[in-house]
């Protein structure tokens, strides 16, 4: 249940306190409260917007984070949106339901994380979703065959709904047809962890209503009346508190502020930190866990020293290439014309079709070799030499990571790039608040490097939890990223001239949006520095790895040096993955829930669903079930 009174929330006792009611936090809350003996309290800074059409209608509630000036991008400052709402970033994302590759997750395992290979996580990629099969007409239109959808991988009955768009998108099926003609159509169901090529991706949508399916509607709303689940919204967590028991440092509770009043709530068992890749390290540092060099100058007592907190920050940069649309083509740019947006809204609510029915449903994953073979230039230095040099010159803590990145880049079956298109115009630096919209209709192609080499950090500069941390992704700081992005944007330019996609663009893909122009290899690197922005996929700041190799949490997601404290969100991802994060966050949270439930039952002496020695009343009724 949701409570309005923070005092009421703080007065209760909870086996688990979850910090952050976002994608991971609500997944954990739903799964942990399946056992009526466990009680869960969730603290969320954002509001409850379950009925808000600004959330439910596919295109917002945001922390409005921004990076520090990026040294290798001409000093540009980049936006880092994060969902400040019940449901977190799953409530504001582009709804793309895409998946990591097998090699991505196997790399996590190879970094010292036993139990975290792809075969270990694959069941949880299935568990979180319910898939609705497309109609025969939709499948034929978007070339959705048994290679793109393996029904055996989509036979689960999870809370999140996934489907293909109900509506014929702007540009129809030109995307998949063009990749098919180029010999680059997707070769396997992406959920399998295999396959490269272009395809129509699933989106997280309820096909019955056409509305967004996200953690709020999927994991929380169906369980709102569980007596062992309590959620407090509009509450800012200040720090985690600790006690000393039997020589151990133990997470004992949470300090938070609601409407100007400070409160403390205790945990009976564990604190689960699910605040995301920016705020999870922030809260650890505010609580005294991190580098002495960061904490002591701010007057924060060091509880556990771990210089890895806030480090290893990775994010998918994304570079746009924007073209003028062919005459007569309607795009999102037409919303500036009187009546167009109103008509689109009416169409959406009437039939769940039209421009508002989907955000991004055209995806492609390509290997480096597939891109390099088609852009028409010969690199002065072979990519194998560049990857070897990157590994040899890496800091000791990064050598193993870079070795795995190089192996993936040289693998012709693995993905080096993600590419998408959106029927709308952008300015260079659009996400930085630069420029004004140009009149006309446009189509934008984007490229992202799946596994960047650049590493950044997130660190606090104040004891005040309302002061945002310094976010420094350090985009394009590694020269190999510049090389990869340059080749990727040249491929977009190549793709735009190929039919049938070229027919969507004015002059067959040779007429650019103002501010864009035809690129050469020599120009591409500087163009990327001017145009790259974030794809909003931050990871790595509380990495799951051995502590000596940069880790913050172990394979059970427990924080090194602290009992009863785990981190569960994208911050634990040690290496970036191809594509979007939400499916992997759901999968990690689902797996974490099973780990936590198993440990909790062991700690409580529960066997076969019954606590040893419990009275019949406890056996039937549960340990802490309460009336709301």
Tell me about this structure.
It comes from Hyaloscypha variabilis (strain UAMH 11265 / GT02V1 / F). Its cofactor is FAD. This is GMC oxidoreductase. By secondary structure, the chain is α/β, with parallel strands linked by helices. It has 18 helices and 28 strands. The C terminus is likely disordered.
Distance between the termini: 7 Å
Return Rg in Å. Answer: 24 Å
Number of domains: 2
- Biggest sheet statistics: 8 strands, mixed
CATH architecture of the largest domain: 2-Layer Sandwich
Approximate helicity band: 25-40%
CATH topology of the largest domain: Glucose Oxidase, domain 3
CATH superfamily grouping of the largest domain: Glucose Oxidase, domain 3
> Would you count the extended β strands for me?
28
Helix tally? 18
Q: List segments where confidence is low: pLDDT < 50 over at least 5 consecutive residues.
A: 610-628
Estimated share of beta-strand residues: 15-25%
Mean pLDDT: 90
CATH class of the largest domain: Alpha Beta
Report the principal-axis shape.
globular
Structural class by secondary-structure content = alpha/beta
